[in-house]
Amino acid sequence: MARVPHKHIENNFIDTSSQFDEKWQSVLKHEKYISDWNDNLIIIDTSHHQESQKKLKTIDLNNISLAVHGKRSIHSSNMMMSEFSNLCDLTKLSINAALFRYEKGKLSDAIGRQFSLIQKVFIWMVRKGVYKFSDLTSDDFRELGLELSRVGWWGVLDYDEAFKMLLEKVKLNPDLLSSLLGLGKAKWSSINYEFLKSEIGLPFPATQIPMYFRDGLSELLDDKRPNPKGSGFKVGNSKDSLIDSFSGINLLALHPKVFDNISFLPFPFASRAAKKLKHNSISNRTKTISLPDAISLFKEATKWVYILSPGILKLAKSTRDLIEQLSNEYGYDSTDNEWSKSQKLNTIVKKSIEENYRDLKNHYDFPYESLSAIQGQNSLKGLIHTLQTSLFILIAVNHGRRLNEVVGKDLPYGLYKGCISDYGFEIPNHTIEIYIEKTVQNFADFFCNQVVVDCVNLLEKLYDLLSPFEAQNKIHPENIIDKRKQKLFKLRSFSIAGFQSDLENYDFSENSKEFFRLASVEQSAINNRAHPFRRLFALLYMNRFDHPELLALQNHLRHISPESTHIYVSPGNGELSYQASCEIEALANRENTELGLEVNKASAEYLKNKVLDILDGQLVGGYFPRLVSKLITRLNLDAEFSEKTLEDKTQEVTEKIIGRGFMPLPMSSGVCMIGSSKHTLKIASCYENNKLNPSKASPETCSKCVNHLYPINTSILLDNEIECLLSSSKDTRIPLYIRNEQVKEANSLAKIKELEMNIAKDNKTIFDNFAESWRKNLEGCYE
Q: Which of 135, 212, 213, 401 has the greatest number of CB atoms lying within 10 Å of its CB?
């Protein structure tokens, strides 16, 4: 077996050795590495693994200038990367390895980081007087790690010296100065970035050109225009930067011996090494939202979602209907450039919005006196921006998901139409499918509360109103891949041309400004980022329960280690004060009490309905009805019980059941009735080691349990599961032994369904006999 860059990706390689010369026969290529090994124009497909369409990224090794001069180097000037064949080969190998390492992540960013890193490493080693990667030692990397932790790559490679030397050369060379002048927007001073990179010979993004260099060029050019805002370099010696560097350097190691590469793993535990070097550094921790700000944001968000949204939906629907009517009547087509007609029709739309808003303002406490502009905060589109921000915040705080996982701007994931499912029976039991951007890097199902359900339902209503007119006549997709394309955080302008254009993306940074203004909270309170809402979710979880489980929170956030989760809930910058924590705890306790009462009330009502079904002779499976029959046998000893109405019997039986600690808990396999009862605890099918083990719950286990109640409509779930298993078993892409197991599982579930139906029929016979005896008793009383 050929050596591969890292063992953990060995099985993912695809053998393409027959296509290339002998040197590359020991290398197996990733499917997203498009170009031939011998080509110095590298072509990579950087599309996300959830996308079907390719996104090609090119890297031209023949066009990269490297500052390999200085210190102990034998070179005296910049040289082209293509002049170093060992570097070109290892660049291709490391990019190939990075494709495996980050294949479910953001490939474009990962490949860009790796390409930049290998240039830096090569320049560093040549300046040390080392010209082969295989000659580097562990001491070299130990020294590099220490230096990076102090001054970052900016200091290691003397970026400042390079920029200052170039500035001095420019003063003496007018031609060089004119070559550095960019063709950017007239409003800003600009630089020819590609030419600057080739002169400096060091990799850096355009955003990190030092301000002193920009100001120096502007002075030499007598350019009075301002330089772009936010420009300036970063030292790059943070813990995260070190982890990226150490991980990237590891990808330069352990390739086939025929290539010049590092023969050992320089940083076996990259994360641990970075943490050790930066243990005294200030953590760049996600900022905590203060309690007053959190309350203000909650109030504003709930106001928009639960009070103002019906008015916004009405206004959006009436406007959409009008635009559709006008488009049909006047036959407007944006491709015909009928500007005057568009203006005339938009005037009608604008007037309609103004009038309808004026009427709705009498019923809804909208923040604006009038709504006139098609664009801007006091427009219909602006209202939807603010509503979407409110929806995002409530979802993020109630579920702890990342911004991209919810919104998915320019990504093949994000909340989509149909992502919520309800597996409950009378008592709601909702789940939501969300893509996990890190760790899992795939879609996963989670339970979610009613707030999240309400928000998604509202987003789906908005999505329908924003969809193109012809979309209403289309059949909704059944394929899950197509469903996931119907992303919910979309918007459009409410104009004639707006409905003939593609849907626009919601941008949290831009579109949330008005919401924060209305909530009287500065966006700086969250560093203009959405991640603080994820941390707030974690803090609320840890502070609202007497015995919060860190591992449960870790599982929900999908962190790899409890350590990652602990960072979210441990003290840090912007931490809640003790008084604020106490206030949250008091609020949470009161809320828990109220919630507990509501849950118990709903569960009792559900139980009463099931008891009524049982006594009324309906088909109800499971062995719990047999316990009910024993209870009724005892109650029948009292003649008064036989004479009661069915409703009164149901009430009394329900009260007796609850009094013994039984309480329904709907599950995918039916309803577990054990509650807090000790009467049947030890004979429960999942009882072991003196306690219940809910993880053992399954259709097969539960069907044999005395605490099991099986509403017949649960069989719909079994039918769906059986159908899915049988359908999957016919997929020839799946290994045969797995398909055989799927058939076995389907047959087992079919038997369980048949068993439950037979038990339900037997239960019906038992309670039909009770009903007959009660009827005869009543007839005897009348005689």
A: 401
